[in-house]
Design brief:
The protein has about 500 residues and is α+β, with helices and mostly antiparallel strands. Helix content is about 15%, strand content about 30%.
Length: about 500
Amino acid sequence: MLNVPSQSFPGPSSQQRVSSGGRSKVPLKQGRSLMDWIRLTKSGKDLTGLKGRLIEVTEEELKKHNKKDDCWICIRGFVYNVSPYMEYHPGGEEELMSAAGSDGTDLFDQVHRWVNYESMLKECLVGRMAVKPAFPKGMLPKSQVTDPLAKEGPSSPSYDWFQTDALVTIVIYTKQKDINLDSVIADHQDDSFRAETVIKDYSYLIHIALSHEIQEDFSVRVVENVGKIEIVLKKKENTSWKCLGHPLENHNSLIPKKDTGLYYRKCQLISKEDVTHDTKLFCLMLPPSTHLQVPTGLHVYFKLTITGTEIVKPYTPVSDSLFSEFKEPVLPNNKYIYFLIKIYPAGLFTPELDHLQIGDYVSVSNPEGNFKISQFQDLEDLFLLAAGTGFTPMVKVLSYALTNIPSLRKVKLMFFNKTEDDIIWRSQLEKLAFKDKRFDLEFVLSVPTSEWNGKRGYISPALLSEFLKRSLDTSKVLICICGPMPFTEQGMKLLHDLNFSKDEIHSFTA
C-alpha cells in the first residue's frame, strides 16, 4: 500500500523490483521525489488538517475519510491522513485509495511491510483507533477460542535453561529435523536477549531481559537430527542465577513469519572495493553479540537515517568471491556479510551508503524472502537469468548448487548488461566456467561496441528458447530470474509462454 518514493526503493535498476503480477510504478510529477516529500514534512505545514492535535478515531469516523482529498488510512492501530502523500506515492493514487477510510494493514503487509511508515508519515499522524469495547466476562470471539496454530502451523517449540559457574545454556526444542544454523538469529542488545528460530513459515521467539550481565560473544550449536538448539552465554560474574530473566514482548511465542516485525542490529563497515565503474563490494561485520547467517536466496534490509528520515532498502548478500574457498579468512567467516551494490549518483540512498567511512555503521535487518532451498532437491538443470545487479542473488545460488547438489548436471547463466564495463565479476565467472564443466556462461549486451562478438539485444523468445535446453527431456529444472522490473516481468511472461510451470520458476523480488 504505502511505498517509499522512487529514489529509495526499488531503484530504477534494482534487483529487487516486484515481478509479473506485482505492483506497477506510476511516473511521478516533477518535484515529487522522496527528497521533496521529506522537505514538505519538515516545512511545518499542517499535513493532518488537525493543527497539531491528535485524536481518537472511531471506525465510523475513519469510514467518512475515503476521498482523494480527504483520505485516512489505519495501519496497526494508527490513523494517517495520506492525502498530502498522494502525488509522492510511486504506486499511484489508486493503490492508496484501495485502503481509503479503512484498515490497510493487511494490504500494506502484502506489498511492503518493511517500509518505515512511522518515520515517513509521522507528520500525517491523525491519532489512534478507538479501542473496541471488551467482550463480556467469560465470552471470547470465536477466533480466540481455539488456537489456529494447532491446526495450521508446526507444533510449538519449547525451551529450558541450565547453568554452570561460568556459563548459561538456553536449549530450544524445535521438534523439527531440518533446523540448521541458518534457522537461528540471536542478538544480545543492552540487557535483552533475543533468539528467533525460523521454522517453515513461522517464527519462534525467545525474548528475555536477562537477570545478570553476560559477555558480548556467545555460541550457537544445532543438533540437526533432533532439532535441538543450544545457545551458550558466558557469565560476567561466576554467580548463581535464580532465574533466566523477565519475559519481554512476544517471548515464547510461535507466530507466522509474515507477522513479525523487522529487527535490526548495527553492523560496521570493514571495507569497500570497486568492482565495476559503478558497482562496489561492501564488507560489513556483525556485532560480536549477534549470530546471523543469511540463507541462500534471501535478502536483508539496510536502514539509514537521511535528513532526519529513516530510509530502508533491500540487498542480497553475496560471497566475497566466487572462489572464496581458496582464501584464508582473516576472521571467522560468519561474522562478515558482503554486498555488491550499484551506486546511483542521482539517487538518495546509495550515495549516502557510498559516503560511509570505514568503521561507520549501518543497520541490517533479519533475513527476508521466500526462496526455499528445498527447490534444489534432485535438481538436474539450473538456469539463471540475471540483468545488472540482479546478478547478486545468483552468486550464492550458483555456489550452493555446484557445491551441494549431487544430482546437478548443468548450470547455465545468461547475464544481461548494457556494456562490457558493466559486467560484474566477469573474469571470475569465466574462470569458474573453465574450472567446472557443469557451468556454462553467456553474456548479452544491449549497447555493445562494434568489437563485441557475443550475443546482443534484450531478453527475447529467440534467446530463451535456445538457452533453456534441458540436459535430458525429463530433467528436473529450476529457472531463477532477477533484474529491473521490466526485465523480470518480460522474462516471466516469456517463460510461461515457453510452458515452464510455476514450480520451475523462481523470481527474486522483495
